[in-house]
Amino acid sequence: MNHLIYIYLLCICAIIIAIRFMASPQTAALGAKISIFAMLLAIASDFVPVPQNVIYLASAIFFGAAVGILLGLKIKITSLPQMVALLNGLGGAAVVCIAIGDAHIFSSALVLGSVVGTVTFSGSVVAFCKLQGFLSKPDFRFLNPIILNVLFLCLTAYFAFMFYRHFDIVYFWALIFSSLLWGIFLVFPVGGADMPIIISILNAFSGWNSVAIGFAQQNILLITVGSIIGLGGIILAQIMIRATNSSLLKLFTSHKDLSSSSANHLQTAKSINTRDAAFILKNADKIIIVPGFGMAAASAQHALKNMSDLLRNKFSADVKYAIHPVAGRMPGHMNVLLAEANVDYDQVFELEDINREFSETDVAYVIGANDITNPEALSNPASPLYGMSILDVSKAKTVIFIKRSLGSGYSGVDNPLFFAPNTFMLYGDAKKVTEEIDKFLEQ
Amino acid sequence: MINFNILLIIFVLSCFIGYFVVLGVTPALYSPFMSISNAISGIVIIGAITQHGSDFWNFLAVFLASVNIFGGFAVSSRMLVMFKKKEPKN
After folding, report:
1. CA of B90: which chain A residue's CA is closest?
2. Distance of alpha carbon A247 from alpha carbon A238, whole angstroms
3. Which residues of A touch B61 (CB under 8 A)?
4. What is the pLDDT of residue B89?
5. Which CATH number is correct for A260-442, 3.40.50.1220, 3.40.50.300, 3.40.47.10, 1.10.10.60?
6. In chain B, positions 46-85, which contact chain A (CB-CB < 8 Å)?
7. Res A142: pLDDT
8. Residue A257's pLDDT is what?
């Protein structure tokens, strides 16, 4: 068994280097290859003293790999966030299975692992269902989420203690069952706009799962790699939480008081048609495109890329993309979609790098984003969005706001930007509207 | 058997490594990074392979973990290909 520790060391170093390579898009693909190599090496090295049930294990890996690769390659680009959530849930389920198999001896690490693993599993499944559209907006709340979470915490702790005291497998199953419910109730109230945060947190959980299993089985590889992933998820979540001026507690327990937002539908928004929008864009020197979930939902990225190419090449405009940390349904969602449409990543900027440029921008083209542009987040302390960092599109000379209707964003808050004197609303599907503009630009 | 204290030291130190390594990941690549770290978290498969527990749960654990690993890598390489594609265009 002694040689194994050197192979594990190699795998750990390879995974650290692989993540390091994710610092730049040029080296990221190499990083992915290194991490695949490390994982295969780690799995293969456990087969070296050939286990008795080798055929059993190998066939499980084979079928798992076949299903995984098939799922990963067949899934549509629009369904990527769901896919990430689902795979994460399966990882949680795997941990629970390991814990069940190991439950013949009591280990606090194992109990912890099975609780977190089950929460990861059921939470990810709920996240998957929400992203897939199986579950609608959470409008039912039977209990205050804080009370509910404390209740589940006590219940889980009680079953864990009883399992320790009496060592009856019944308590272990009760533990699993209560964690299953806990995960469901934990994720259920989280809204769509907070989805990138919850996905990162569930991802972090799956890292902590392997730490727990690592402690239970005294496996250094599981502890090291698990804690790196666990922290990775937490860092991503923390970055996004900071950008929305939220907190972990608020995320899971928020009662957004919508009545406090100053609803003022008496104001009228100016709307324009695609011909006029194309005219405005033609005459602009500097344009910033602000994509949001609506772009992802309509798959408008290719039309958008076409538009920016036309504007750049035919009308020699300066076109940039501005990405808010929580735009979309998973971290970096917009970047992936723009990359899919072949948008050069040199033209894509993060919030803090581009926000100052809006004041010298002729046209801000907001496509499928809403709450992340709401100026009330800066000015109105009564707004539920107050304190959130926003893309300062209202500073641009003209704002073209593509939207299906004059409704509020996911948070249910009115956006005064619609009624601003320099805003023109362009109603319609993000993709269709952009394609029409493309046609006018081509003429 | 490895001493618990040593495991604890390893755990805390790797938390620090994880923190600084992940801070370096560029925001544009958060999605592929998440997908890769998702795949890597399937490392628990090792816990299932080396475990001598009951057969059914073992089989299920290995199966689920490998779906996680290979699915995660498939998704992340699909994402990363998109980021790579336009390089010759520059």
Report:
1. A344
2. 9
3. 94-95, 97-98, 101
4. 43
5. 3.40.50.1220
6. 46-51, 53-55, 57-85
7. 57
8. 41
